[in-house]
């Protein structure tokens, strides 16, 4: 089967979405990108997780053309396509409708760094885009969603290598990584961070972010030049 390993990578990532209860029924999608061939494999649209197979994954190029596969690709395909075009060294993308991340997205709010769990994975608040304009929605919704994410990162001078997750206002979370499995991993982390932050804000609506020196310590012990976390 052509693109066998790429299809399998995308399939496993999509099944991990379901295993981690980040999405129910047909919600959510993961894709895997092969930079050498310039193609990515993504979940087919509207197919439930227990019906997925590696063979059902759809392979497309970065112009959105289907190069292999019999089913329609995910409705979010163009968002994935834009992110692969614009974010270097991103080889896997995940979009879910996980409830805690969606709650922050629906409120249109970035997620503050309230604690060290957040700081271990991201040294600043999780960004949330603006709400999409009426003109953009009428144009090409999924393509414009990708553009909105890119604009948010450019406007706020953010690095997708350091911040591998975003909330799209009113919609939900996207996460990415060096492969499809990593993109789901970051989606799981995002959901837990959003859950903890929501509880914190509920317990104390005036809660302040973690002091910056503690944020920096927790980020650098995992990701800094003298990182010492792990084996």
What does it look like?
Helix content is 43%, strand content 13%. By secondary structure, it is an alpha+beta fold. The chain has one domain (4-223): Class II aldolase/adducin N-terminal domain (L-fuculose-1-phosphate Aldolase), CATH 3.40.225.10. A hairpin with a 3-residue loop joins strand 6 and strand 7. Helix 2 (77-86) packs parallel to helix 5 and helix 3 crosses helix 6 (180-203).
List the helices and strands and how they pair.
Elements: H1 4-19, E1 29-34, E2 39-42, E3 58-61, E4 66-68, H2 77-86, E5 92-95, H3 99-107, H4 116-121, H5 134-155, E6 165-168, E7 172-177, H6 180-203, H7 212-223
Antiparallel strand pairs: 1-2, 1-5, 2-3, 3-4, 5-7, 6-7
Helix pairs in contact: 1-6, 2-5, 3-6
Name the overall outline: globular
Q: Roughly what is the average pLDDT, rounded to an integer?
A: 97
| Rounded Rg | 17 Å
DSSP strand tally: 7
The total domain count is: 1
Short description:
With 231 residues, this protein is of the alpha+beta class. The protein has helices at 4-19, 77-86, 99-107, 116-121, 134-155, 180-203, 212-223; strands at residues 29-34, 39-42, 58-61, 66-68, 92-95, 165-168, 172-177.
Index terms:
231 residues; alpha+beta; L-fuculose-1-phosphate Aldolase; seven-stranded antiparallel beta sheet; 7 helices
């Amino acid at each position: 089967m052509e693109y066998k390993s790429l299809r399998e990578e995308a399939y496993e990532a999509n099944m991990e979405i379901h295993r981690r209860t980040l999405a129910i029924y047909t919600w959510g999608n993961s894709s895997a990108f092969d930079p050498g061939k310039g193609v990515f494999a993504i979940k087919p649209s509207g197919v439930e997780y227990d019906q997925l197979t590696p063979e059902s994954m759809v392979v497309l190029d970065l112009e959105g053309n289907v190069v292999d596969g019999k089913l329609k690709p995910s409705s979010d395909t163009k968002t994935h396509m834009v992110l692969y075009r614009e974010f270097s060294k991103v080889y896997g993308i995940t979009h879910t409708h996980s409830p805690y991340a969606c709650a922050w997205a629906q409120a249109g709010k970035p997620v503050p760094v309230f604690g060290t769990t957040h700081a271990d994975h991201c040294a600043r608040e999780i960004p949330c885009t603006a709400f999409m304009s009426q003109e953009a929605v009428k144009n090409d919704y999924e393509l414009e969603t990708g553009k909105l994410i890119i604009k948010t990162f450019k406007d706020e001078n953010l690095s997708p290598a350091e911040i591998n997750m975003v909330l799209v206002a009113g919609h939900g979370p996207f996460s990415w990584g060096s492969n499809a499995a990593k993109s789901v991993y970051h989606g799981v982390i995002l959901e837990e961070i959003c859950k903890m932050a929501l509880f914190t804000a509920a317990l104390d609506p005036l809660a302040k972010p973690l002091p910056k020196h503690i944020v920096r310590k927790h980020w650098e012990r995992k990701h800094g030049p003298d990182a010492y976390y792990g084996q």
